[in-house]
Design a protein that fits this description.
This protein is an alpha+beta fold and about 450 residues long. It contains 19 helices and twelve strands. β10 and β11 form a beta hairpin.
Length: about 450
Amino acid sequence: MTMNPPKKPVLPPGHHGHWLLGLNEQVSDPLGALIRAQRKHGDIVYLNTIQGPIYLLAHPDPVQRVLLDNARNYPSPKKRPSRLMGNGIFESSGAFWLRQRRMVQPALHRSRLVRMVEGMVQGTETLAERWQHSARTGEPVDLLEQMRLLVPTLLGASIFSRDVYESQEGLHACVAFFSHSAHGSARDSLWKLAWRRLWFPRSRRKRFNATVEALDTSLHGLIAERRKAPSAGDDILGMLLEARDSQGEGMTDTEVRDELVSLLIGGHESTSVALTWTWYTLMSHPEVEQRVLEELAAVLGGRPPTTGEEVQSLTYTRAVVEETLRLYPPAWQFMRRAEEDDEIAGFTIHAGSLVLCATWLLHRHAAFWKDPERFHPERFLPEQKEQRHRHAWLPFGGGQRLCIGNGYTLTLIVAVLATLLPRFQARLVPGHPITPLAGNTYRPRFGIKATLQHRHPL
């Protein structure tokens, strides 16, 4: 009997040399490196990096293979236990991750989101009071910093039924530390961030550990307080305390703590950045801003939303947010790891290799987006969304690991815009650089400076 020789592996084109040869580009300009690799080699590219072989996927079809068709072969890469994040759904994997996700997901179901809108609006009203002063004086504000202050307040209202951000010093300090240290200041280059993480001086480690200890004290105190209450409550914390797995077991205090950190810390920066970019796109496109104002006036009559149903009915405003997420996705890439050899589009994917799904590139693929660099919210109106490849737009990831807070994030952003936009007109400060930085998130490196003015009613 004649035996066919084993099929020779076929690697995609790309960088097959030593990883040191491309290290500077990978660290100093990671997104630019991916853009140039796609332009030179196509939609599937082999990259030899300091992390080992990485397969860049920049087309929805191979991404669908990884996230849907053969998803079991591509779990999220296992991470070392994190002192800050613990073992919540953002960090865990396997059977434990699946258990936790099933227990957490009902707390963020659409039927519960509609009941959180009131708290979102109330928290935004507090920011509106502060903006009154800036509108009177004409003093510029940094919208990124403003949104970084606002989002934890709104998260606190949804999770704890009250704003705990200001009252809990440990929580406040941890959120501030995470924003300005983990994501870097405006002056930090990625090389500096990489060096600081490798070196991690003792003083910084000491501050980090003290910050996390203060956070733990705050959260465990809030958990203990709620466990003593006659009813767990109708907020996210209450849902987590009442959740039961298939064996009828609830979460331990540590497990609840880890899920709270996943929601508070994991969702804070990306939501703040998404809100900031949305303000930027509205300021840059006055005709779009005017149409949003007209929809807000027609649906809400000049008042903030009071129900989730009203937020859901703001279809054009939501389309603006989704188009912003297409052009400026905070999560601009995500990874999976191949457990076994696989074949994608005729190329061999070796077991143990990382697969990089480049969200930023998917969102600009000319085969799926007409005039991809143009800001055009109409792409996301219901009739056009139905015709789109399901893996061409992935700002929240996809597959089983789809971000559990995607519906919450969209609801929050629309509620904030509906509350602030009819009252304030924001305009870019001339000459301030708008420079995207692809680090842990895709954010404006130097923030976005704007002046505020009171808006006249339509």
